[in-house]
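Service request form, structural biology core

Requester: graduate student, group of Dr. S.
Request type: structure prediction, single chain
Budget code: on file
Notes: please return the result as structure tokens.

Sequence provided:
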Amino acid sequence: MADPLIWSPLQLGPLTVRNRIVFSAHLTNYAENGLPTEQHAAYYAARAAGGAGLIITEEHSTHPTDWPYEKLIHGFHPEVIPGYRRITEAVHRHRVPILAQINHNGGQASSMYSRLPVWAPSPVADPLFREVPKAVTTSEIAEIVASYGLVAEHCAEGGFDGVELQCSHSSIVRGFLSPATNRRHDDYGGSLANRARILLEIVAEVRRVIGPDLALGVRLCGDELIEGGTTIDEAVEVARMVEATGSVDYINTSIGVATASLFMIEASMHIPPGYSMFIPSAIREAVDLPVVGVGRFKDPLQVERALTEGQCDLVGVVRGQIADPEFVAKARAGHTDDTRLCLSCNQECVGRMGLNRWLGCIENPAAGRESLGVGQARPVSVGRRVLVVGAGPAGLQTAIAAARNGHHVTVLERSEHAGGQVRLAATVPNRAEFGDLVRNQLQECGRLGVEIECGVDVDLAEVRRRDPDTVVVATGSVPARPWWAPDDAEWIVDVRDVLEGSVQPNGSVLVLDELGFHHATSVAELLADRGCQVEVVTPGMVVGQDLGITLDLENWWIRAEAKGIEQTTELVPMSAGDHSVTFQHHPTGTEQERRVDWVVLAVPSTPADALFGELQAAGYAVHRVGDAVAPRRAHAAVIDGERVGAGIMAASAVLVGR
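Core staff response, request fulfilled:
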């Protein structure tokens, strides 16, 4: 990049950021008892050390009525200030400014934790929480405004360089701004000027509290993507109002509502990068304030293009810096090939958060565990000769973790290519980015000097010939035939058979989904694209039900409808005859039959652990990881590999097998 904008400094009011990449606000679930933790400090410090230009923390609640999820920072309690100081001091050691995002979620919440009525501009229930909120009075609006000032004061005492007002995807302020949720007839409802009144009052109060020496930003939603909601024209007008106050230093942007259209806020790999840049672009044309753009940026070249095209002044990169805290530093040094690219799979970041767990990353096992030193090198005095059998995600992560500590690692793979099932999963429509997991692991293996040999069929004799100190079996799993499927029914095949190309289903195809994830839906799309008539059947209540937590479900429904894929739920397979399968309907107990040309199975597999048993019996120091232990998803394979690889001790020690 010739004279790139990405590395040029920028003034945000009293702050100077040294580059244009922002680690934007996002939930982490790291709080304990409403307070920030050491994990918060370590998490943000790792991204500061990695070169981020600006860090904006997750939201801090401004009022006791706002407690939408368990592990929320309660910024209105003064007890948060010591934790704030730990965070800011840890980040400031790397000369990076950090802002605190403050917010009241309004009607996008429930009374489960607070045991208080939810507050909102009008009694309009959120479609996810389904709780009718209490319409706030004018005196309660004044209380809300004052509470923002109180939390801003705590943030200033805690050493933050400023605050950002979250007025976008989940906020009582967004609720006031939106005609879909604001049905008031007083001074805070009706016209856009009235609906924006609370925002301008909050801006004035927060600026009064923090003074001129701290930065103040406002994050606005440019399009709620809901019926009757805010669209870009009104968002631009609100941005003009915000700028006219003279109190705000920058405007951040977002798209969607954090419940009804959440799948467009934290978009998965099916949505193209930069998909929401029409919002910052339109706002930037209307105001002179610096504008932050977001939208699944995973590569510094994408960031530079958005900047040079004038779409925004800064770019928020969140998942890219979760996956690789050194995203910015590597780009700055020209080492982009070494960057651990985000997959946008949403499994361990968005998905874990949806399950009320702390934020992690499918390919970065240190994410969420920085305070515990996970992923850090602990060199051994004398390295062991480690043999890893299998080059799937578990085997490769084992090799990475072991080599990082100074062991001499060789990986043997039966097939001609590394990657295991991940390589197959990346061959289906719109899932190619999932293959970056293998790409990233191979790149890291190369940097660490791991030797990888493909096309090697490993047995006990081969292990004896290699004479390793430690063996790690990462041989994965193999398809399992369900009890009801006859062994001689060649028209009943596994998902892997289709993806590997050993069978070519045609005509009518029934895909059985017993895994509830991408396996069934991906192969269904693949076959529909090839001209097959496809029906996906599941014993569950929803086809691909776990796609809900990765925010893939809504777009799967859209694509399935467009491709003519039928979806049938609550059917349990009972028997198979001549190109027919009999199902029992869960709710009624009645039987249904399907006559088809092919059945494709997305069902649980079984561990390929024979080699492990042989090696253990032969007295080897042996361990197993990933599907060879128990067939699970890729994140479990990576965690297994990290734990076992990092746990291999020096040459004089013995690793006990299991």
